[in-house]
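hey so i finally got around to running the thing on that chain from the lab meeting. sorry it took forever, my laptop kept dying and i had to restart like 3 times. anyway pasting the input first so we r on the same page abt which one it is
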Amino acid sequence: MIEELHIQNVALIDDLQLEFSPGLNVLTGETGAGKSVILQSLGLALGERGGIGIVKSGERLAKVQIAVSSSPDHPMWARLNDADVTEDLDTMEALLLSRQISAGGRSRCHINDQRVNLTLLHDIGNLLVDIHGQHEHQSLFRSETHLNLLDAFGELEELRSKLNKAYHEIHALNQELAQLSQRLHEAEREKELFEFQIEELEEAELEEGEEETLTRERRILSNAETLFESASLVYDALYGGSQTNFSVLDMLKKTSTTTTKLCEMDESLTELNSRLESVLYELEDIAYQIRDYRNSVDFNPHRLAEIEERLDFIYRLKRKYGNSISEILAYQKEITQKLTELQVSSERIEELKDRIRAVTVQGQDLAVELSEKRKATATRLESLIEKELHTLGMNKAVFRVLVRPIESRNGLLQIDGNRYELRSNGMDEIEFLISPNVGSKPKPLTKIASGGEISRVMLALKTVLARIDNIPTMIFDEVDAGIGGRTADVVGSKLKELARFRQVICITHLPQIARFADQHFRVEKRVESNQTIITARPLAPKERVEEIARMHGGEATEITLAHARELLEGQTG
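ok and heres what got predicted. didnt touch it at all, straight out
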């Protein structure tokens, strides 16, 4: 609720501070005293637009600040948290909303000490206050709020939550489907190329290390004659020998025979003799291996040609797919994975389409059920609102709640051959309609011309919906326009009843309404230092009697004072 209002340099207001009570707050005063200026100032702090002429003449800045408080679970805290306005929301009990407007029309908005934009201030204002009457801060005039109020009145939130879940699942599935379809479309252009490349690489049957093995084999085959000749020379030198030339092994064998004789004469040479014999055996083994190698040397021009052709093929693949067989095989794995993903994507697309169809059927069933329950709820609400309107002096008023499915050529829902939109809150548009007079067709609330009728319609709606509407403060301007007598008593009683659940601030010219106030303010103009200023102050009990008397008869006479006391005693008795 609004705890305090502080106005500086707005129109004819110099410096004004008011503290409001939780119940019914009434502002009275002569016509033109400045009551609407106070409400206009309040609207500025709630994010309403302000003109250049709002700043008091001769001043540079106008400033309005309100202190507001609300329950810990009120939506404004979540909105502030989403906007990162403050880090200690959980420990706060009240907020300061302030607005500065320069003489040139520039505006600055603050919540506590943090500067915010006008949109956020307006959003918070919408969650905190309804102003009904001459001003535009009227949530119940916005058709988009009618749906929420109807669902809350009918306790349809659980069904609507199920529908909202289905709607968002459909939305998420469609997003995934669109993204997959786009990727698949883009990949399809590469699919044929990938398939060709995979076929070519699979036929190539490349193996890790193959190029190095082939290169080594090519080198051997290319040098087969040299290898054979060289191996023969080594073998001959080690073992072959001739009648004229002894081989290394021949010489060593003779040497070994001699050292053996030496050992017979001197045992200290035994170790050396053993080592010489080991060398002899090792060289003999080397000679045999060289011989075997020489005999294995392959003179195979056909195999050499095959190797040359294979290496040339590998070279061409390297130019296309990578700098090495390892890179080529990695690329092959990559494009194979891409083709697999394409296949998986195609399968996923079919799964998504099946799921979208299933959830759409579910959503349609929920939307139809919700729509039918809204129609039943609308009938109950119409009856209750009409009853309230009749007690408020609008005896012939007709109130209707229009529940209208949203038709659309491309709508997601198809019912009885027609297509309808599916939104997160259902398939319906909801609008409150009224006919204040006999013979007139019910029209949207925004078409009502009379400020008094508007305020009484809002009062009727608020009376019925007070227990479900979480906006804590309501302001009524011109709630008494066009009424009097018994109807004024009923309006005052309704405001008092409403003030049991919400803070109410009301401008009135009727004593029958003012007498119900929990806090009564008198607004007046007076001249100070040759300047006209607007002032307002709460009235003491005796001053209330005098103000009610003035409102009743224009002058405070014994008769009007007695009548005023009677009115106030009747209200409190």
